[in-house]
Design a protein that fits this description.
Structural class: mainly beta
CATH architecture of the domain at 45-135: Ribbon
Distance between the termini: 37 Å
Low-confidence stretches: 1-11
CATH superfamily of the domain at 45-135: Umud Fragment, subunit A
Strand order of the largest sheet: 3-4-9-5-6-7-8
Length: about 140
């Protein structure tokens, strides 16, 4: 399997609030900080096996992955049934949900406009890693 590595992005630590944020009106009594949060430590569990890739297209919108999102991918994790993975198909990298049965493998889009990619016995699926986090801008 061919893999590419990238250096982790330098991300400063941020304050971490003790309380959870409700979608309603916040409580003023919960207005204090627990400490700091290093996003690298939070999203990268295996630094030497982790890389970043930018999503392109709209085939995974149902999974919350949109065009331009930054995907955090861990090559050390087992690509098991139901996980979102980065795979090489016909020389191109793609992000899809892995569906595995005893004798069948397919890569499923999360958009009904795109058919699944079906593999027959003997076909090889090259998995480049499991997507662990998605970062997208809300602005």
């Amino acid at each position: 399997m061919t893999t590419r590595t990238s250096n982790a992005l330098a991300i400063p630590t941020c304050s971490l609030a003790v309380c959870r944020v409700e979608a309603g009106f916040p409580s003023p009594a919960d207005d204090y900080m627990e400490g700091s949060l290093d996003l690298n430590e939070y999203v990268i569990k295996h630094p030497s096996a982790t890389y970043f890739v930018r999503a392109s297209g709209d085939s995974m919108t149902g999974a919350g992955i949109f065009h331009g999102d930054l995907l955090i991918v861990d090559r050390s994790l087992e690509p098991v049934h139901g996980k979102v993975i980065i795979a090489e198909v016909d020389g191109q990298l793609t992000v899809k949900r892995l569906l595995k049965t005893k004798d069948h493998v397919s890569l499923q889009s999360e958009n009904a406009s795109y058919p699944p990619i079906e593999f027959q016995e003997g076909n090889e699926v090259v998995v480049w890693g499991v997507v662990t986090h998605v970062l997208h801008n809300l602005l």
